[in-house]
Design brief:
Layout lengths: L1 H17 L6 E6 L3 H4 L12 E7 L3 H10 L4 E3 L2 H5 L6 E4 L6 H10 L3 E4 L7 H13 L4 E3 L7 H11 L6 E9 L18 H4 L3 H17 L2 E9 L10 E8 L4 E7 L8 E8 L2 E5 L5 E6 L2 E6 L8 H11 L9 H14 L2
Parallel strand pairs: 1-2, 1-4, 2-3, 4-5, 5-6, 7-10
Antiparallel strand pairs: 7-11, 8-9, 9-10, 11-12, 12-13, 13-14
Helix pairs in contact: 5-6, 6-11, 9-11
């Protein structure tokens, strides 16, 4: 069995090498759970030059059901068999973070492209391992920090890049939720509060959206540090995290994540203050408020049917060799270093 798989991996690497300027990205999904039902899965067939070929889930009944409902030609219960499928040149890893590294390394050994859900790994060391493997592979890696491609956050970035609020001075992030956040898709096993599977608690699941936007907006960080603690004792992981980032351009970001407040105190806010005004928005919402002097403007953005579709389109173009990476594994390493520092 090992020899057979090694031969398949070598063959797939060769085939991938021969078609590096591929005209179509053909996908296999490892982990076709809730996140793929609406947010990402259907988008793979809606993006030009992209096709979903197969899905994998260890539960055969659920894998077959997903494939049937989404008109996917094939399904597997073994990830390596999906990776070895010669019709597939790109792998989307949508499992809990504990298995991201192993699946990514297996896909890269086979010469396949890899699109990895956030957080990219359990910690920075694992992310660095993927980054090193990518250098030795013919496959490309992109991270699913999909807010980078959404119209609302592109609008905010344009405001910042054009100096609409002057020089940015400080950013305040508040993400306060109850013990069972409404922002989270509830699952029977609630793996998000099992550090062995998620890397931490709800902070590790939600903060990558916010912190990656900070990296996207402001560039390379110079300093970052924070603290985490389990205040409530409601479950066996941290439920209160605070941290600070100072960027090389002297922008200062302070963040507070609390997952133990009452429903009345729930808040999702990012407030960017500049020398001439401010920009405020919820990372999980659809409205941006811009204040310049005494003038205030509110802009509403329509919800997207599939929140990852704009990012998947950028990833497809990157895998085809038509553009740069919309979010590289090296950027994923930096984010994981920040998460590690905040949750120490």
């Amino acid at each position: 069995m090992w020899l057979q798989r090694s031969f398949k991996s070598a063959l797939n690497f060769y085939l991938h090498h021969k078609i590096i300027n591929m005209s179509q990205i053909t996908w296999g999904i490892i982990g076709c759970g809730n996140v793929t039902e609406k947010k990402s899965g259907p988008a793979f067939n809606k993006v030009p030059d992209s096709k979903l070929i197969a899905v994998m889930r260890r539960n055969s009944e659920k894998a077959a059901d997903y494939a049937s409902r989404h008109n996917v030609p094939k399904w597997y219960t073994d990830a390596q068999e999906l990776i070895d499928d010669p019709e597939i040149n790109s792998i989307y890893i949508a499992t809990p973070p504990s298995s991201h590294m192993d699946y990514a390394l297996a896909a890269l050994r086979a010469g396949k492209n890899v699109y990895i859900e956030k957080p990219v790994t359990l910690n920075a060391h694992e992310a660095m391992t993927i980054a090193e493997a990518a250098k030795r592979s013919n496959g490309k890696v992109a991270i699913a920090h999909y807010r980078r491609a959404q119209p609302m956050f592109l609008y905010v970035k344009d405001l910042l890049d054009t100096g609409a609020i002057g020089d940015v001075r400080t950013v305040q992030i508040k993400m306060w939720q109850s013990l069972r956040p409404q922002l989270i898709t509830q699952t029977a096993d609630n793996w998000r509060i099992n550090p062995a599977l998620s890397g931490g608690g709800y902070f590790h699941d939600l903060s990558p959206h916010q912190l990656d936007l900070m990296l996207y907006f402001f560039g390379e960080p110079e300093y970052y540090n924070g603290r985490a603690l389990n205040q409530s004792g409601y479950y066996g992981c941290d439920d209160n995290v605070s941290g600070q980032i100072i960027f090389k351009n002297k922008v200062v970001v302070n963040g507070s994540w609390s997952f133990n407040v009452s429903d009345a105190e729930r808040i999702d806010q990012c407030h960017i203050v500049g020398s001439e005004g401010s920009i405020s928005f919820p990372v999980f919402g659809h409205d941006v408020t811009v204040r310049i002097g005494t003038d205030e403007k509110n802009i509403h953005f329509a919800p997207l049917e599939h929140v990852q579709q704009p990012m998947i389109e950028k990833v497809v173009n990157y895998f085809k060799g038509q553009s740069g990476s919309p979010c590289s594994i090296d950027e994923g390493v930096v984010l994981m270093r920040v998460l590690d520092a905040f949750s120490q």
